[in-house]
């Protein structure tokens, strides 16, 4: 385990020459690691540095989305045919951003030499439309269906799953670009990642690899997100609290700007998609009414803030406190709408590392839930400890 006081050694004020870069921070993490953890920490350093490299490129792609959305170059990777493009310019821009972001992230992870990629779940057969499938392909698809659910939409290459090579014991899941449909509107997007230790022997095939990543959040070794907004901010935890690094465009490096992030104990902001509220339970509606009317623990009326980009809403909740909720509803999302493995679990881990709490429905701790499917969805609630404690009384 990394020394929890590592960030306390740094002074984040000062000129550019004295700023703490993510590369330096991770190098110091390796230096201060115990001998028993040394190889493990080095592997973790390599994975996070590769994610950092990819996020720099994705940040530039997102910032230029409105300029280059008519470029055909995104098709060069070959994973999506021109026939899959639509007449809607927004959809085409989203397709390209998703595809390029996935390719960039996969290449960066391969560059470490320590990870192998799994082909996106919805492309595992490797066959183009209309190509004959062998019996082996059909059998493989049946096995895939046993660990996948609610497959990504047609434009989305899918969650990335990576497994360690040789002696590396890590397995990672990554969402290359959450909220990509918002990019043309200038709304924040993000890359999300979670890294687990694989307790089993190296998976023998891609199906076993998918199963190896189906772990509860309490098993996470590291998790984080890179938020592409007014600034590009990489927030992550390796089990020693939450730390944030902002991309300095002049240096071309992520520099430490948010050491030891702590969520406020109680906030007065709630964040949810109230368009779905007609399908919510009466108890949840009563909770929101208490927030709106001031008949709650704080005695004040809450403010509503909802970006519609999950990481953007979670980032604000980390900074200012309050509660974010995406419950199930009887109309359109009976099992919730957010993917458990590669969205809710990594973000819940960060919230809890920052001193907050996370739940699923029925008051169950989010990080204790083991996903059964790669794309499994579940209700989720995140926020300040006192906010979640009050929410539990209504669930």
What is the strand and helix layout of this fold?
Layout: H1 22-31, H2 38-63, H3 65-68, H4 89-111, E1 115-117, H5 135-145, E2 160-164, E3 170-178, E4 189-197, H6 206-212, E5 220-228, E6 232-237, E7 242-248, E8 253-261, E9 269-271, H7 282-293, E10 303-304, H8 310-320, E11 323-326, E12 338-339, H9 340-353, E13 357-359, E14 377-378, E15 380-383, H10 385-392
Parallel strand pairs: 9-10, 9-11
Antiparallel strand pairs: 1-2, 2-3, 3-4, 4-5, 5-6, 6-7, 7-8, 11-15, 12-14, 13-15
Structure description:
With 395 residues, the protein is an alpha+beta fold. It starts with 21 loop residues before the first helix and ends with a helix. The strands form three sheets. Strands 1-2-3-4-5-6-7-8 form an eight-stranded antiparallel sheet, sandwiched between helices. Strands 10-9-11-15-13 form a five-stranded mixed sheet, with helices on both faces. 45% of the residues are buried. Mean pLDDT is 82; it is low at 74-83, 122-135 and 152-156. The longest helix is centred in the N-terminal third of the chain and has 26 residues, at 38-63. Strand 2 (160-164) and strand 3 (170-178) form a beta hairpin. The chain contains ten helices and 15 strands.
